[in-house]
Amino acid sequence: MNDIQSDTYPFSLDVEPVGESGSLFQWSIRKNGKLHQRSDRKHPTEAKARAHGEAEIERLIRGRGR
User: Fold this and answer.
1) What are the start and end residues of every segment in region (Disordered) (predicted)?
2) pLDDT digits (tens, 9 = 90+) for 31-52
3) Cys-Cys link to 24, which of 16, 36, 42, 57 (CB 3.0-4.6 A)?
4) Cα separation of 49 and 47, whole Å?
5) How many CA atoms lie within 13 A of 24 on its CB side?
């Protein structure tokens, strides 16, 4: 699952199930298509993983202005 939005360029967020059961999820952030950062823990739902990943992208974008 890949969300590419122009307001988060050059970052994109992937949220994927982890393990065989697929009951846990993790996110990864790509910058210009290359892996930039990955979640350090597994999340119980896809929605929670997506929310944490989106928050991290916002943090990265805000940091660009410094």
Assistant:
1) 35-66
2) 999 999 999 999 999 999 999 9
3) 42
4) 5
5) 9
